[in-house]
Amino acid sequence: MRFFVTTPLPEPGMTLLREAGTVVVPERSPDLAAVCASGEYDVVVAQLTDVFDADVLAGARLRGISNYAVGYDNIDVVAATRRGIRVCNTPSVLTDATADVAMLLILATARRCVEADAFVRAGRFTGWEPSLLLGGDVSGASLGLAGFGRIARAVARRALAFGMTVRCTSRRPVDEPGVERVDWDELVERSDFLSLHVPLTAETRHLVDASVLRRMKRSAILINTARGPIVDERALVEALRSGEIAGAGLDVYEDEPRLAPGLADLPNTTLLPHVGSATRSVRAKMAESCARNAIALAAGDAVRVVNPE
Ligand code: DGY
Question: Regarding the domain with residue range 113-267, which homologous superfamily does it belong to in the CATH classification?
Answer without folding.
Answer: NAD(P)-binding Rossmann-like Domain (3.40.50.720)
